[in-house]
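Ticket closed. Logging final result for Thioredoxin.
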Amino acid sequence: MATREITLENIEDTITAGGIVLLDFWADWCPPCRAFGPVFEKSSQAHPEAVFGKIDTEAQQQLAASFGITSIPTLAVFRDGIMVFNQPGALAGPQLEALYQQVAALDMDEVRAKIAAAQQAQQGQQQEARA
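Final structure:
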């Protein structure tokens, strides 16, 4: 599947649909973004089972701000609705492929357990701070 445009209107449905979702935050005036675009597109064609979304930070400023985007290109990757990667900088094709394979190999039950443990620890610290 080719890349698709992601907007404030379709971001939540895109992420919560499950599976692997890669989001490329970019702008037309950004040379590294333009260099990464074909790499991202080629990967989208190699992995039709995943969603490859492009977010134009100029047109979608509110969406970019909600993700805290301060540098572009930035790649955010979700698996089963959970953000598992978020990093600025253009990746080369082999780097993007290696990242995709790592995300595909994640044990999501383990990821969810780690998130739950971290949230419990944070709640415990907050309760101790109030006492």
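The mean pLDDT is 93. No further action required.
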